[in-house]
Amino acid sequence: MAWLFHDPLTRLLAQAIVIIAASRLVGLLTRRINQPFVIAEVVTGILLGPSLFGWIAPGASAALFPASSLGIMQMVANLGVVLFMFLVGLELDPRLLRGRGHTSVAISHTSIIVPFALGAGLALYMHPRFSDASVPVLSFALFMGVAMSITAFPVLARILTERHLLRTRVGAVTIACAAVDDVTAWCILAFVVATARAAGVHGAIITTGVALAYIALMFLVARPLLARLAARVATPDAMSQNVVAAVIVLVLLSAYLTELIGIHALFGAFLFGAILPKEGGFARALAEKLEDLVLVAFMPLFFAFSGLRTQIGLLDSPSDWITCGAIIALACAGKFGGSAIAARLTGLTWRESGALGVLMNTRGLMELIVLNIGLDLGVISPTVFSMMVLMALFTTFITTPILEKVYPQREMARDLVDLAEPAIAASAAAEATAGASDVVAPATGHRILLCVSHARSGGGLLTMAGALLDRSSASRLYALHLVRDTERGSSRLAGGTDESGAILAPVVERAAALELPVRSLSFVSSEPARDISQVAEVRQADLILLGWHKPVLSQSHLGGVVHDVMAQAAPTVGVFVDRGLTSVKRVLVPFLGSPHDRAALGLAHRLQQNAGAEVVILHVVKPSGDRKSSAPGSAAGQLTSSVFGEDAASVTMTVVESRSPAEAALEHSRNGYDLVVVGVGREWGLQERRFGLQPEMLVRECPASLLIVRGPRDRARSLSHAPTL
């Protein structure tokens, strides 16, 4: 195979192709088990190394990853890590500490001191067995302490975003603790590196003093200058290539100076990102320019390089594996125990403290960076490196499944909704006293959840909700906007508030015009259907209203997220197709008798009561020669009486014979109706499906606005006992 790699460039290109493609493929698998992408990259690196690829196909491994080529890969990977550490510094926002400074510092320092002490103590046992005699015990113990106490801030931020914890109390405290943890750990690491590189403690003290002077210079001189630059380049459009080039040059210069000082280039890049102003769009625009290239191209190379250095085969005795298990146990006990106990002492509940401890135990990428520094300096041996990589992989892997047990999705959703809308939180005690009676008994009010995905649909949804909502004090109207989750860390710098405000603005404006109190909330979502269902459950909504948007790659108007909400949500779901609805005066309800049709009747009754609408029920029956019943409409009349009660006399019922219910409904919808309310079902050409294969004639050709109704899941059994038509 040597002819395939006839020079260093072709070999490097081949390595990059294999590494990037393999990491993306493994990433597809890790996503299915709800793991962060960093797990895929770490696993890919190990699989491509001597632990698997080199063991299964030693010839191919030697041809693709010969020892002589690792130096070039290391240089390219290190350049990527320098830029990555700059991005990590960008994500460290001082505003995270506002109001949480004392709590964050107390928890963070405890979460560093405890595992640091355990790691240093374990190092005294490991040094004579796994370290070279030339390595000072102090350097080895200090490095093991730092490696045990590190927290992976980027991975943690990603997990918090995916789990919607970033804006909850536990998430806010955790990200603030991780920020303090990161800064503290890197300062300690800088001292450890200075100690390892310098000749004795005296040299380490001099190096540390110069490093402190450099840090002060960056904060006192460089930061104000960067603030002026950020003020001039406040928008992404103003971010020219010259500005980006200038920033990259300054990042590399900072990395270069810290490398000369003796505290490693990565610290300089991290420091420069940390002091860069986060206000405005400057930091976000920079991150957007760099992160795709760094995360997709450079970082997989770093993980692969780490994997090539990880030799699990070096752990070839029971004592080695016992030591590896001790490292994992002490790492978890120190980080989880220290963080959780400190969090409990600062006032968090046991559930929140446990979740914080689980999250702070995440190591991942930052751990690998620290370990590679230690291996390059000769402080740790390849065997210890492999043990610590396994520890980093294990502690990151267990975070998500344990977090689900400690802090379930329902609790997260409740905290998220309460924090997203303070007014809801303020009335939580009163609502808890009232219980769920306002959901079960419509006479005490309704709760409607509007799901607004686009600004153009918000006004129509609000009009529809206003017609359905009674004006009693127990009624509640919530407007929810879910910000699409992305793999970009820069999205956390923006927070999504500007986008959400613009999208929810038409809802707020229409609500003010209709004198409807609406409570809006928004957050980042990777699984919209699940989050909509959970918010509806937490807020005890009896109706979810969705705007209609035809999904990509689907012929169905009820596909995509709409399909998933219909499949998962417990309350009634309404999909609103707006044809310019301004008021609801005449309503047509096509009816066949399914549970969803009966739910549509219930909503029509609400429109009659709350909006004073004239309701016409179109009962479609089979032609006389095809049906068994000789009295069409009698069962429908009974059901109408049971649903509408005293208002049944004002309801008009029309019975028509047709073999095509959809065509009959479409024909009658042309008679000047404002709204057609129809139950979802195959009979109307409407059904819950991810990809539609049938033309939805009623949706496409109905001239009036359309409300497609799926009945409540929890009442399916009781609905089945209604009169059969």
Overall description:
About 60% of the residues lie in helices and about 10% in strands. The chain is of the alpha/beta class and about 725 residues long. The protein has three domains: about 1-405, Up-down Bundle (Na+/H+ antiporter like fold), CATH 1.20.1530.20; about 435-545, HUPs (Rossmann fold, 3-Layer(aba) Sandwich), CATH 3.40.50; about 585-720, HUPs (Rossmann fold), CATH 3.40.50. The chain has a ten-stranded mixed beta sheet, with helices on both faces. Strand 7 (about 615-620), helix 29 and strand 8 (about 650-655) form a beta-alpha-beta unit.
Please give a quick description of this structure.
The protein is of the alpha/beta class and 725 residues long. The chain contains 32 helices and ten strands.
Q: Proportion of β residues?
A: 5-15%
Unreliable runs: 422-443, 551-555, 690-694, 715-725
What is the total tally of β strands?
Answer: 10
Please work out how many helical segments DSSP would assign: 32
Strand count, sense and closure of the main sheet?
A: 10 strands, mixed
Could you give the order of strands across the largest sheet? 3-2-1-4-5-10-9-6-7-8
CATH architecture classification of the largest domain: Up-down Bundle
Shape: elongated
**CATH topology description of the largest domain:** Na+/H+ antiporter like fold
Alpha carbon gap, first and last residue:
74 Å
**What level of helicity do the residues show?**
55-70%
> How many individual domains?
3
Structural class computed from helices and strand pairing: alpha/beta
Task: Supply Rg.
Answer: 31 Å
Q: Residue-averaged pLDDT, rounded?
A: 80
CATH class category of the largest domain: Mainly Alpha
